[in-house]
Structure formats: structure tokens, C-alpha cells
Amino acid sequence: MIIETNSEKETFELGKKIGRQAKAGEIYTLDGDLGVGKTIFTKGVAAGLGIEEPVSSPTFTIVQIYEEGRMPFYHFDVYRIGDPEEMEEIGYEDYFFGEGVCMIEWANLIEELLPEHVIRVKIEKDLEKGFDYRKICIGEA
Fold first, then answer.
1. What is d(CA 79, CA 22) in angstroms, rounded to the nearest whole number?
2. Any idea what the CATH number is for the domain that residue 25 is in?
3. Could you give the CA distance from residue 80 to residue 131 in angstroms, rounded to a whole number?
4. Model pLDDT, residue 75
5. What's the predicted TM-score (pTM) here?
6. By residue range, what is the domain housing residue 72?
């Protein structure tokens, strides 16, 4: 599925729609260049899950855990992972195979740890179509 958005608000609302439809145990991978809107999209997913607390990128903590919504939300940023073994140290399997929803930024860096079925989200810019234009591809892999 390919969706085009033309503002941060539209990108947020798409994430919110995904969050409303999310089911326990789903894992979303989120790829895109720096500044493309991954955090805006993730904030929308959190809102769709009923999470009201501020959501930020967990760049230095690897995972942020939000438990106030209709199910837990685990937001990973694995950009700084040097070795997939670091994921074992934080007990990633408890999150990946738990009762919540996982969102993993830069998931390509831990590809070998991902389960067979994940939902891949890729966000791209195209400045020729406008500064706020985003092409968002969502599909199961």
C-alpha cells in the first residue's frame, strides 16, 4: 500500500489510523532518512493506541516503553546498535513476542533478529513535490 501525505498533520493522522488498527504482537519496521518524519508517524501510532504522554525518539536508550494505551507500545531506535547482541542485553524477545506493539526504527541493522512476519513502513521525501510531501509505503514482509 502506498499513501502520499502533504503535511506533518497528514503523516501523524496516518500513523494514528495505523495505531487504532494495530493488534497485540505486531511488529512494524520504520525506515527512512533522517528528518523524513519517522517520529511524527510514530507519535501518530502512539496516539492511535491511546497514549497521551509525549513520544520522542529513543536514540540513546534504544527502547521507550509506553504502557498507558489500550496495549503496551515499544518504540525502538536501533541506529546506535553496534552488534545485534546488544539487543539480547535489553531482552528484545520480551518486547517482540509480548502483548504490545513494536515500532523499530532502522530495523535493517537488526534484520537477523526480526521474526518472519513484520509490517514494513518506509517513508520517503520528494522535494520536487513539495517540502512536506511524503510517500509512505506499508506492506507485510
1. 24
2. 3.40.50.300
3. 28
4. 95
5. 0.91
6. 2-140
